[in-house]
Specification:
single chain, 491 residues, mainly alpha, 2 domains, 20 helices, 83% helix
């Protein structure tokens, strides 16, 4: 019997799920922001560079056997105990294998990078990787039922644990180990919470491995390509330019994506199970996707672009002089990454329809283009070359995803852009408002901290006002068109 829920029930639960996830992400974003600012003041860019290389290396190793197990359970119409047991078997086997691989590779990697401290850090990352295999195998079923409260509690608790553990260690020892120990504590708490909310008998099974693998295999290949694609710049900058430069680049990249990531994540988490419910109705699927895409873009793009416009104030007020070199990096990357909101709904759309092979093809094409362009930019022009390459390859990647959406739903590229037209117009109004305000007399009269906060408020007001103005203009235009049609009809 297929799991079908009437549309109003699904819609109501999606709205509740979005409220839960959005509120939790807001809290998580605030805690993450505070923690990252304090750590940036206590630690040096070189410490962040060391962590960036370790987290990138562990991510590449982890991607070698990445299995979207939760997505496989959510996408499966009928889940039985054998699905649960097989999922647990795959998760534990994967975690053990990868932790051993990373642990064995720790010393050779530290030797190649001429950095002995990497050895201990990579061993700690291997332990975190081992813990990841012991999440409750029934955890994904909570999301499948469109219940997002437990995930919200888990996210907030994880971030608070990380913060409470990491900050005192950073204050007293000024060491990169503050970040690592905070991650270990958070992982232990996170695993424990999944078993509290979704208890399950921890038994091994192989009966459904073939079915789960048939869904996951293309996701595994995509994960490998995406991880290498996303981490190659960090790894190569660390090797070519040194710890300080990669620390600056990684921190700027992490902050640049923060506004967009914290808004898209809750929506995408809700979207995947929601789109899975309507995957057999092409009209409802296309309508749901268009609405989600326009909403995501309207919510995300002002945060990313606005952050780029106030990057100079952000660094001067909150981070201090040692972080000044990241200003131009954020100014370039934050607006660029905000544009990816155009296609944030594409991956859950494809996975909801079981189109993981198409995702792999898209990721393969993106990998074949992005990696050589980024490496060429680095070796020819250094960090500016990497930033230019990121701009070109991001636009290319967005185009590939929009093409995939057209293939699945029939929504043309023009329609996908047209749905976001008011957001583009409001963006232009917001940017003009921020530029004019920063060039005005307030810049010389207000303290820097106050100026920073007021600039953010001005940008937000301009964006909302721009949306309202363009909506009223479109409404008036529609009214005139309707009146013209009625008059021609003789009414």
């Amino acid at each position: 019997m297929t799991d079908r829920t009437p549309a109003p029930s699904v819609r109501n639960r999606l709205v509740k799920g979005f409220a839960w996830t959005l509120s939790s992400r807001a809290v998580v974003a605030l805690l993450s922001f505070i923690s990252s600012i304090v750590l940036a003041r206590l630690l040096m860019p070189e410490d962040f560079g060391l962590f960036a290389m370790a987290i990138s290396l562990s991510a590449v190793v982890q991607a070698l056997a990445a299995l979207p197990l939760s997505e496989a359970l959510i996408q499966t119409s009928e889940v039985d105990d054998d699905h649960i047991g097989s999922t647990y078997t795959l998760a534990v086997a994967r975690a053990v294998l990868l932790s051993v691989v990373l642990g064995v590779a720790a010393w050779p990697i530290a030797y190649l990078y001429h950095e002995p401290r990497l050895f201990g850090i990579l061993l700690a990352m291997a332990f975190i990787m081992l813990l990841s295999g012991f999440f409750s195998p029934r955890w994904a079923l909570i999301q499948k039922q469109l219940s997002f409260g437990p995930s919200a509690v888990q996210s907030i608790t994880l971030r608070m644990t990380n913060m409470v553990v990491a900050l005192p260690i950073a204050y007293f020892y000024r060491s990169v180990w503050a970040i690592i120990i905070g991650m270990i504590a958070a992982q232990i708490v996170s695993v424990t919470l999944t078993h509290c909310y979704a208890p399950a008998p921890l038994r091994f099974s192989t009966k459904r491995i073939r079915a789960i693998w048939s869904f996951s295999v293309w996701g595994t290949f995509s994960g490998i390509l995406n991880t290498i694609n996303q981490r190659i710049d960090t790894l190569m900058i660390g090797s070519v330019l040194g710890h300080r430069e990669v620390g600056l680049y990684w921190y700027a990249d992490d902050k640049a994506v923060l506004p967009t990531r914290e808004i898209t994540t809750p929506l995408v988490v809700v979207l995947f199970p929601g789109l899975s419910r309507v995957k057999d109705d092409p009209v409802r699927l296309a309508t749901a996707y268009r609405r989600a895409q326009s909403l995501l873009f309207a919510a995300c793009v002002p945060a990313g672009v606005g952050f780029g416009l106030v990057a100079d104030q952000f660094v001067n007020v909150l981070l201090g002089e040692k972080w000044l070199p990241i200003i131009p990096i954020i100014q370039i990357l934050a607006p660029l990454l905000a544009l990816e909101a155009l296609i944030a709904s594409a991956k859950p759309l494809a996975m909801a329809n079981g189109r993981t092979r198409d995702l792999f093809r898209r990721d393969l094409m993106n990998f074949a283009f992005r990696t050589p362009v980024v490496l060429a930019g680095l070796f020819l022009f250094g960090l500016p070359g990497v930033l230019a390459a990121r701009a070109v390859t991001t636009i290319y990647g967005i185009g590939l995803f929009m093409w995939l959406v057209r293939k699945i739903t029939g929504i043309t590229l023009f329609q996908q852009l047209h749905d976001c037209r008011r957001s583009f117009g409001a963006l232009a109004i917001m940017a003009a408002g921020i530029f004019l305000f920063k060039a005005g007399p307030a810049a010389h009269l207000l303290p820097s901290g106050v100026m920073f906060m007021v600039t953010i408020a001005v940008g937000g007001l301009c964006y909302v006002a721009g949306h309202l103005l363009l909506w009223l203009t479109a409404l008036s235009a529609d009214g005139l068109i309707l009146a013209d049609k009625l008059s021609r009809a003789g009414c």
